[in-house]
Predict the 3D structure of the following.
Amino acid sequence: MNTKITTILTLSDFNLQFAQLNDDRFFEKIPSEDYRRLIYESQKCGKLVAEDVINKFPTATLDEIVSKLGIELVFSEMTVDKNFTSVGYFESPNKIVVNSTLKEKDYFFEEIGLSWFNYDFWKEIVIAHELFHFFQEKNTNTFIDQYKISLWHLGPYQNKTKLLSLGEIAAMSFAKKLLALDFYPGFLELLIIYPYFPDEVGRKLDEILSRDRNKMIEQLFND
Ligand SMILES: [Zn+2]
């Protein structure tokens, strides 16, 4: 049993969503009074899009939904690299690619007592996640794309940026709702590649688990 992986899988939605926000490259620039609202609005955005899809295609499987939307689904044996391994991605305007190389590590999860966490299972989450980005691209008028933080200003000119982590929180909330998962799949991309790079990914998982987050979460709920 790998306790790091099982612990990540049992963290609360909010805890993992906060960790996702915390991972944003501009996290330090986010006003702390906005944390709770950013998480709330981002997960709501993902859930609403999921409800919309469920209403439109009440009986369809994920594969059928993807095909009805005219999205090309590709399974590709991509390289696995320590510095960058993609578990899947969305390519505009209508292509979703899943890295099928990673299937070769199914035995690892079986060995640690997580046989349900196999390629056939997690690829659905990857597809659902990328499906959200397909919808996100079609409608940039939502909170996750409209919220911007100011990086610097020069007189009346302000340099603003959006936060990519909001789209990631929304995409995982979408996947959870659409697939009726009983856990929040935050950091799925790390768990999947853990068997290749246990030291590096393990350190990252430790970081997620040990950051002084609990204290911050208490603060968020108590103010
Ligand atoms: Zn994403």
About this structure: The pocket of zinc ion is lined by residues 129, 133, 168, 171 (CB under 6 Å). Residues 3-222 form one domain. Residues 35-56 form the longest helix (22 residues).
